[in-house]
Structures are given as structure tokens and as C-alpha cells.
Design a protein that fits this description.
By secondary structure, the chain is an alpha/beta fold. Helix content is 34%, strand content 16%. The strands form four sheets. The chain has a seven-stranded mixed beta sheet with strand order 2-10-9-8-5-3-4. A three-stranded antiparallel beta sheet has the order 11-12-14, with helices on one face. The structure holds pyridoxal-5'-phosphate.
Length: 360
């Protein structure tokens, strides 16, 4: 067996320790004689797994008691609609910051439910920066302010929590949740699909302040309703139970490393080494304003795009996989989530240096 370094943006690399634990538990979870996949989601074994999942997430992120934690389906994309369906609370307006492809999608979907005020956008410059907050136009009568804390495709990350001028702050943290500590009490709602930095695809985490939920149109289906899902512990219907268990293993792994602050230090070091290698090269470059470069998704282009195919083929032959950039921006992208070991980043840097010597 040979494992590669997988730089995919999502579904993405998982900690080897998690995969091994899952392998060990596969046929017989803790003496039950069953795989977690086979368990009733209402039974005592799975109930224990579910309770620990929530407790561990609360502990790792320091989630205050007045926040609900939901584990939903439908991906972050589902939330683009579920959020206005649940937290407009009779309001007709919501503010959005547009910093890339994912913000753009969130804005488009929200537009079906309310008047979207785009408070700031970096679209004109090709989503390479974050507009200065002094230029944002926040309507303080709107229901909330939404932003994408890390733009997975454009490689742009907020290094701070925006000032929402008193509006509930909503953040799509799909690609940087658990990569750095955040003060949850500053948010109205945080959401994330799990397949970037938390586990496999199939679960969407929603952390929402309790006063924001419960005022909804009576036609809203129960499966989309945060208040109903909360009351039923996210088990209104059958949840993606095996995926909950895998996310739980990822959380245990994070705790074993010393929690999110410890992981953040590693992420700072890993991303700094890769950006430095890119900046020192004359073949590779990163287009993003250095103040807002993502620690998770590092896009880079080759000054000679004729070499793209060779680069990808030789990288793959060295066990460095999934480096092709998103089809909308081209070039390359190295996603270096929590689970990417230092050795993977160093192997990529070594490969890039050798490649530049040969072809640069
Ligand atoms: C991947 C991603 C999404 C979409 O997630 P799905 O689970 O595929 O719906 C949304 N926002 C961000 C920031 C992402 O990285």
C-alpha cells in the first residue's frame, strides 16, 4: 500500500490516524459486533457517538451555551438557501460581502428569498483581495451580514472577523473551520460543509445563536428548519450517521494534537513555507494580495502555461496529486488543510524547485 499527498480542495485529505481508526472499527465498533454504518441512529451506541461529536466540537471551538449546533445534509450549498429561509425573521434585506466564487453563489441563492445588498465586492479586480472595511456599505436595517471567511477557489482568506455594525454576522467557514481559533460569540451563525477540513462529505455543521431561530414561514419544510432540527437533535430523519462518526474521529485527532491553537501554528508555518517558495521563484507566482492569502488553499500559476500539463504529470508521478487549479481560474492550487502533513508541503516545495531548475 502506498499513500499519496492529496492536495485536493475537497473532498480532501484525511488524517491517516483517523482512517486507521475507522479501519480498525469497521467490522466491530467497540465490541458491539457492528459497524457504525449498521447501527440504528436512535440506538444507545450511536446516541453516544452523536453526543460526543457535539461535546467535542463545543469544546474545540469554545461554543457558548446559547448557540445551537446542528449537523445537517445538503452541503454548504443547501445553507445558501436555508440561511435566509431561517434567519430573515420577517426582514426583507440581507447584506453580503463578495470576495470570490463561493460568496457569489451564496449571493445568488439568497436573492431568491430577499433583497441582497452587496456591501462590498472585489470582483472587478478578479477576487484577489478583500475591500477595505471603511468602504463597506452595511445597511443596519438588514437581517444579517454574510461573508465567506476563506474563498476556497480564489485563495483569499479573512485574517480578521469583520465588524458587522450590530447585524448578526454569518460566515461560510467551509474551508477554514477548525484551522484557526475563532470567537464564536461574535457570530450569529457559522456553517461549514465537512469535506474540506472536518471529515468526509455528507455533513454540514451549523452553529447558530438561539435567538435567531424559530421565526419562519409556516411552509418551510421541517428538514430545512433549524428550530425543528435543533429540537430533534439533528435527527428529524435519518442522519448521515457514519459520516458523523468520521467527523467525530477527526475532532478527537485535533484534540490529541493539542486543539485548534496548536493546529493553527502548524498551518501558519506550512503556508508560510509554501508562499515563500512561490515568491522566491521566477516560474511560479501567486496572484493574491499578500495580506489576504489563504493558509488553506494556495493557488499558483506558471509563468509559462505551456508547462502546466508537464507540471501536473510529473507531480502526480511523485505522489503529489490533485494540484490542478479550479476550472474557473486555471493554473494550480495546493490545498493544505489541517490533515496535510509538513512532509507533504515540503515534498511539494522540493518538487517545485527541481521542476523550475529543469524547465524554468
Ligand atoms: C466547498 C465549498 C462550498 C460548497 O460545499 P458543498 O458541500 O459542495 O455544498 C461552499 N462554500 C465554500 C467556502 C466551500 O469551500
Amino acid at each position: 500500500m502506498k499513500r499519496i499527498y492529496n492536495f485536493s480542495a475537497g473532498p480532501s485529505i484525511l488524517p491517516e490516524a483517523v482512517l486507521k481508526q475507522a479501519q480498525e472499527d469497521m467490522l466491530d465498533w467497540q465490541g458491539t459486533g457492528m459497524s457504525v454504518m449498521e447501527m440504528s441512529h436512535r440506538g444507545k451506541h450511536f446516541s453516544a457517538i452523536a453526543a460526543e461529536l457535539e461535546t467535542d466540537l463545543r469544546e474545540l471551538m469554545g461554543i457558548p451555551d446559547n448557540y445551537k449546533v446542528l449537523f445537517m445534509q445538503g452541503g454548504a450549498t443547501g445553507q445558501f438557501s436555508f440561511i435566509p429561509m431561517n434567519i430573515l425573521r420577517g426582514n426583507t434585506k440581507a447584506c453580503y460581502i463578495n470576495t470570490g466564487a463561493w460568496s457569489t453563489k451564496a449571493i445568488k441563492d439568497a436573492g431568491r428569498f430577499c433583497d441582497v445588498i452587496v456591501s462590498a465586492t472585489s470582483e472587478q479586480g478578479g477576487f484577489k483581495t478583500i475591500p477595505d472595511p471603511s468602504s463597506w456599505t452595511i445597511d443596519t436595517d438588514a437581517a444579517y451580514l454574510h461573508y465567506t471567511s476563506n474563498e476556497t477557489i480564489h485563495g483569499v482568506e479573512f485574517p480578521y472577523i469583520p465588524d458587522s455594525k450590530g447585524l448578526p454576522l454569518v460566515s461560510d467557514m467551509s474551508s477554514n473551520i477548525l484551522s484557526r481559533p475563532v470567537d464564536v460569540s461574535q457570530f450569529g451563525l457559522i456553517y461549514a460543509g465537512t469535506q474540506k477540513n472536518m471529515g468526509p462529505a455528507g455533513v454540514t455543521v451549523v452553529i447558530v445563536r438561539d435567538d435567531l431561530i424559530g421565526t419562519v414561514d409556516k411552509k418551510l419544510p421541517d428538514v430545512f428548519n433549524y428550530a425543528v432540527q435543533d429540537k430533534d437533535k439533528s435527527m428529524l430523519n435519518t442522519p448521515a450517521s457514519y459520516n458523523w462518526y468520521l467527523v467525530g474521529l477527526v475532532l478527537k485527532w485535533l484534540k490529541s494534537l493539542g486543539g485548534i491553537a496548536a493546529v493553527e501554528s502548524k498551518n501558519i508555518a506550512k503556508s508560510a513555507r509554501l508562499y515563500q517558495a512561490i515568491d522566491q521563484s521566477s516560474l511560479f507566482s501567486n496572484p493574491v494580495d499578500p495580506a489576504f492569502r489563504s493558509r488553506m488553499n494556495v493557488p499558483f500559476i506558471l509563468s509559462n502555461p505551456d508547462l502546466d500539463k508537464t507540471f501536473l504529470a510529473e507531480a502526480e508521478a511523485k505522489g503529489l496529486a490533485e494540484l490542478k487549479g479550479h476550472r474557473s481560474v486555471g493554473g494550480m492550487r495546493a490545498s493544505i488543510y489541517n490533515a496535510m502533513p509538513d512532509e507533504g508541503v515540503d515534498a511539494l516545495i522540493d518538487f517545485m524547485k527541481t521542476f523550475e531548475k529543469t524547465y524554468g
